[in-house]
Specification:
Length: about 725
C-alpha cells in the first residue's frame, strides 16, 4: 500500500474503510461539525473523528458518494484533509487494521490560521495608521479588516449551516460582526474578527501541544537498526526489520524493535515505554521493547514483532482509540451545549427586542448589547473543558507506562474504593521456584519426573517452575498422553500407562481422602508461604512439591500507597489459605483464598455491591473477573493480552502503578471540574456585565477565546505532572 493513499480494504458490502489526517481541528466542536456534515452524505457510515490525534475514520460506498466529494465536503468546512499512509497493526482478534503515529506538527507560523491572523492584524494596524494620518476616514479605515474576517468566517458559517450546523461559533461571530458593521461600530467589528482569529490560532497551538504526548512516543523508535548477517552488522531502516532477524544493539543505542535477547547481558532503560524507572537486567531469553535504551553491554536481539506491530505502535493505536471514546462528563457537556447555544441566541434576540419595544430603550444600545451577548455565549471553553483534560490525562499515563483505554475508564478509576488483586503474576513475580520435594512413595526424582511429564507443554507458572527444576536436576521427560487441565484444581495426563494428576491439596483430599496425605507437613510448608501441589499416581498420592513465588519488590509499597489514597485492597487467589495469608501478611493486604474462577466472580460481585471496585490481574487467567469488575486493569509488560483486554494496563508490571493510576484519575477529574467551573463562572460574570452595558464587543470575544486558551493550558498541566512520589493521605486532593 502506498503512502498518501487511503486504505482500500473493501468489505463484502462494497464499503471501503478509509483513514484521513484532518488538519485544523482544535476543539470538540470541530469534531461535531465534521460528523454532522458527513452524516448528510449518502453511503457514509461508522464515522469516528478525534481532534486529539487529527484522525478521521469512516466507511464509504463510492457508488453513493465519491471520495473526492467527501474530501471536498471536509475542506469546505475550513479543514485540511489528506489520505493517510498506513502501517499494519494486528488486533487481538486477528483482524488487520491500520494505524499511524501522529504526523509532524507544522510550525505555528506556517499554519493557514497564522497567515489569516497576520493578514487581519496588518489590515487593523493599517487602519489605525490611516486614522492617525487622516482622521476623516474614521468611518471606513477599519472596514477592510472586518470585511476580510467576515468573508472568511461568514462563508464557513453559511457552509456549516447548509451542512447541518447552524449554531456554530462562526455563525455567532459572523452575525455579531455584521451587526456591528450595520450599526457603524466598525472598530469593534474589526477587533472582533482579529481577536477571534487570534483565539483560533492559539487554540490550534494548544491542541498541537496536547498531541505532543503521543508524538513523543513515536520519536522513541530509532530510524535505523544494525542487522546481523553472520558476524557482519549492516545498517538498514528499522521499519524494514522482519520477525526472526538478529540485530545488534550497542550500549547507548535504542532498541529498534520488540524482540528477545539471543545473546549478551545488559541493563535496559525502558522507562519511556513501561514507566519502570529502574533499568531492567536483560540476558538471553529476556524480552526487550522497541524504544528502550541499552545501557551497559552489547546485546544480540531476535526480532519478534515487525515495526508496524511493536509495542510503541500498538500503544499509539490504542491511545488514539481511547482519545476518541468520550467520557461521561464530556457526553453530558456536549448535550448541554447543544441546548445552551440556541438558548443564548434566543436570549440575544430578546435582549435586542424587549427593552426597546417594552420600555422604549434606545435601539442602538440594545442591539450592541445583544451582539455582545452572542459572543459571550459561545460555548467553546465549556465544550473543551472535559476532553482537553481527558486527552492530557491519557497521554500523561502513556508516558508513565499506564495505558488507559478511554475517558470513561480514566474517570472511573479514581472513583474505585476497593481494588482486588490476583496473586500470581500480579502481586508476585509470577516466576515460582521449586523449594521442596517430598517423596511419599519412590524417590524425589521419580516424583519430579511424573510431575514434569504431566506439566510438559503447559504455560502455567507452576508448571514452568516444575519443568525448570526437572531440567536443572537432569530428570528426563517421560512421554505422556491425554493431557488435560481441570481449572483451579489439577493437571492430568497418562504417563507410562498410569493416570497421573498434579493438583492442589484440596483436590487430592477429594480424590484420595485426607488420611492419605501428610497434613502436618503440608501445613508447615504453606505456613512458610509456599504453594504445595500433590502428585497422584493412579489413586494414591506419591509426593509433594512445594513452590514459592516471591512478592514483587514494590508490592508492599504499592498497597500502602493505595491505603493512603483511601483505597482498600484485597488479594483474590486460588492458592490455599495458609500460603495466601503468609503473602498477605508480608504485603499488608486482606486475603480471600482457595478461590476457583467462579468464586472470584462471586467475590467481585460482593465487593461491587459495597463500593466501586477495580480488579487487577495478569490479563490471561483473570479475564472473567476483569470483565466483571467496574474497572479491569491488566498487568503485562506490553503483551498482546495486556494491551487488548481490560480497561487499563500497567505496562511496567508495577503494583505501584495502580496508585499512580488512581492519583492520575483524581487529578484529571479535579482538572475537569476546574475547567467547567472557570468556563461557566466566566460566562456568568460576562452575562451580567454585558446586560448592564459594561462589556464591549471586543471584550466579549476575548472572554470566549481567552477562556478557551486558559482551559486548554490548565489541561496541559497534566502532561507536566511528574510520576507519583509521596502520595497524599486519604481525603486530600490528588
Amino acid at each position: 500500500m502506498q503512502d498518501g493513499t487511503a486504505m482500500d480494504a473493501v468489505n463484502s458490502s462494497g464499503r471501503q474503510s478509509l483513514r484521513y489526517r484532518v488538519d485544523g481541528m482544535d476543539c470538540p466542536s470541530c469534531v461535531t461539525k465534521i460528523e454532522t456534515a458527513l452524516r448528510r452524505l449518502s453511503g457514509v457510515s461508522d464515522i469516528s473523528v478525534s481532534y486529539h490525534s487529527g484522525l478521521l475514520k469512516l466507511k464509504l460506498d463510492e457508488a453513493a458518494t465519491p471520495k473526492a466529494a467527501l474530501e471536498t465536503t471536509v475542506r469546505s468546512l475550513g479543514f485540511g484533509i489528506d489520505a493517510m499512509g498506513e502501517v499494519r497493526v494486528v488486533s487481538g482478534d486477528g483482524a488487520v487494521e491500520t494505524a499511524a503515529g501522529p504526523a509532524a506538527e507544522p510550525s505555528w507560523w506556517s499554519m493557514p490560521k497564522a497567515r489569516l491572523t497576520g493578514g487581519i492584524a496588518l489590515l487593523v494596524a493599517t487602519g489605525y495608521a490611516g486614522l492617525w494620518l487622516i482622521p476623516a476616514v474614521e468611518d471606513y479605515a477599519l472596514v477592510p479588516a472586518a470585511l476580510v474576517g467576515l468573508a472568511v468566517f461568514g462563508r464557513r458559517a453559511v457552509t456549516l449551516a447548509r451542512l447541518g450546523s447552524p449554531f456554530s461559533i462562526e455563525m455567532l461571530m459572523s452575525v455579531a460582526t455584521a451587526g456591528a458593521l450595520a450599526i457603524d461600530e466598525t472598530a469593534e467589528a474589526a477587533i472582533v474578527v482579529l481577536l477571534f482569529s487570534v483565539g483560533e490560532l492559539l487554540e490550534g497551538i494548544a491542541a498541537g501541544r496536547a498531541r505532543s504526548g503521543i508524538k513523543a512516543l513515536t520519536a522513541l523508535i530509532p530510524r535505523t537498526a544494525l542487522l546481523l548477517d553472520g558476524e557482519v552488522a549492516r545498517e538498514i531502516p528499522a521499519e524494514r526489520l522482519e520477525v526472526g532477524q538478529l540485530v545488534l544493539v550497542r550500549p547507548g543505542d535504542r532498541v529498534p524493535a520488540d524482540g528477545e535477547v539471543a545473546e549478551g547481558e545488559s541493563d535496559a532503560d525502558e522507562s519511556a515505554v513501561t514507566g519502570e524507572s529502574v533499568p531492567v537486567p536483560k540476558r538471553a531469553g529476556s524480552p526487550v521493547f522497541a524504544g528502550g535504551i541499552n545501557t551497559t553491554g552489547a546485546l544480540r536481539v531476535r526480532v519478534t514483532r515487525a515495526a508496524a506491530d511493536n509495542t510503541i505502535a500498538r500503544i499509539i493505536h490504542l491511545v488514539e482509540e481511547a482519545q476518541s471514546s468520550k467520557a461521561p462528563t464530556a457526553r453530558f457537556i456536549e448535550r448541554f451545549s447543544a441546548r445552551y447555544t440556541p438558548f443564548v441566541i434566543l436570549a440575544a434576540i430578546l435582549a435586542i427586542l424587549v427593552p426597546p419595544l417594552a420600555a422604549g430603550a434606545e435601539w442602538h444600545v440594545w442591539i450592541y448589547r445583544g451582539l455582545a451577548l452572542l459572543l459571550v455565549g459561545c460555548p467553546c471553553a465549556l465544550v473543551l473543558s472535559t476532553p482537553a483534560a481527558i486527552t492530557s490525562g491519557i497521554a500523561a499515563g502513556a508516558r508513565q507506562g499506564l495505558l488507559i483505554k478511554g475517558g470513561a475508564a480514566l474517570e472511573a478509576i479514581g472513583r474505585a474504593r476497593t481494588i482486588a488483586f490476583d496473586k500470581t503474576g500480579t502481586l508476585t513475580w509470577g516466576r515460582p521456584q521449586v523449594t521442596d520435594l517430598v517423596a511419599l512413595s519412590g524417590t524425589e526424582r521419580s516424583v519430579l519426573g511424573l510431575a514434569a511429564a504431566v506439566e510438559n507443554g503447559s504455560s502455567h507458572p507452576l508448571a514452568r517452575a516444575i519443568l525448570e527444576r526437572a531440567a536443572a536436576d537432569g530428570v528426563p521427560l517421560r512421554p505422556s498422553r491425554d493431557q488435560k487441565a481441570i481449572p483451579g484444581k489439577a493437571a492430568r495426563a497418562v504417563v507410562g500407562g498410569t493416570p497421573v494428576e498434579v493438583g492442589s491439596p484440596r483436590h487430592a483430599t477429594e480424590r484420595c481422602g485426607v488420611d492419605s496425605l501428610p497434613v502436618e507437613r503440608i501445613a508447615a510448608l504453606e505456613d512458610a508461604g509456599k504453594t504445595v501441589v500433590v502428585v497422584i499416581a493412579g489413586d494414591r498420592p506419591v509426593g509433594l512439591i512445594a513452590l514459592r513465588d516471591e512478592p514483587r519488590a514494590d508490592a508492599a509499597a504499592g498497597i500502602a500507597a493505595l491505603r493512603r489514597l483511601g483505597v482498600e485492597s484485597v488479594m483474590l487467589t486460588g492458592d490455599n489459605a495458609r500460603t495466601g495469608q503468609a503473602i498477605g501478611r508480608s504485603l499488608g493486604i486482606a486475603v480471600k483464598a482457595d478461590l476457583l474462577p467462579e468464586d472470584k466472580l462471586r467475590e467481585i460481585a460482593a465487593l461491587k455491591a459495597a463500593a466501586p471496585t477495580a480488579m487487577v490481574g495478569d490479563g490471561i487467567n483473570d479475564g472473567p473477573a476483569l470483565a466483571a469488575a467496574d474497572i479491569g486493569i491488566a498487568m503485562g509488560g506490553g503483551t498482546d493480552v495486556a494491551l487488548e483486554t481490560a480497561d487499563a494496563a500497567l505496562l511496567g508490571n508495577r503494583v505501584a502503578g495502580m496508585a499512580e493510576l488512581v492519583a492520575l484519575s483524581r487529578a484529571t477529574v479535579t482538572n475537569i471540574r476546574q475547567n467547567v467551573a472557570f468556563a461557566l463562572g466566566l460566562k456568568a460574570i460576562f452575562l451580567v456585565t454585558t446586560l448592564i452595558g459594561v462589556t464591549d464587543l471586543w471584550l466579549a470575544i476575548l472572554a470566549d477565546t481567552g477562556a478557551t486558551v486558559i482551559v486548554t493550558l490548565n489541561a496541559l498541566r497534566l502532561l507536566r505532572r511528574p510520576k507519583i512520589g509521596p502520595l497524599p493521605a486519604a481525603g486530600q486532593a490528588a
